[in-house]
Design a protein that fits this description.
With about 150 residues, the chain is mainly β. The chain contains three helices and nine strands.
């Protein structure tokens, strides 16, 4: 008689706590679909965000945007982190201050399109806005250092 053993793909807690860089941790958590998939909700009123995992150093949330939805511009001061796009294309807007050229000190927006599988890591000083500028729903997983 044979039996089938189903193994969870959620990493054991010791594996998760041994990963210290948010960019590496977000990849490990993204591979654990059963950890975050049940929390994905598409809300026509606003992007939906739900906590999915935490330890004493990091917390992870999953976010879902319908086409045209955007998060307000927000800051991650003192909270380095990373995000991975799990589905769709997410537009991120950040701001850069010119250090040379004709107008040093002038700030300008920089827009990036992050595609499924792409990781965006950021340091302890990060201000950005996120938007689903495409025609398909977007899902992303975020890992932040705990305050």
């Amino acid at each position: 008689m044979s039996s089938t053993v189903l193994h969870s793909t959620v990493p054991h807690a010791t594996v998760l706590t041994s990963v210290s860089h948010p960019g590496a941790l977000v990849r490990v958590l993204a591979a654990s679909r059963e950890l975050w998939a049940r929390h994905v909700r598409f809300d026509p009123a606003a992007p939906h965000t739900a906590p999915v995992w935490t330890d004493d150093r990091h917390e992870a949330v999953v976010s879902a945007w319908l086409p045209g939805q955007a998060s307000p511009v927000h800051t991650h001061l003192g909270r380095p982190g990373a995000l991975i796009v799990l589905q769709g294309v997410l537009e991120e807007t950040t701001w850069v201050t010119a250090t040379d050229g004709a107008e040093p000190g002038r700030r300008h927006a920089v827009r990036r399109h992050l595609v499924a599988g792409e990781v965006r890591s950021y340091g302890a000083v990060h201000v950005h806005g996120l938007r689903n500028d495409g025609a398909d729903p977007v899902v992303a997983l975020h890992v932040l250092a705990r305050p």
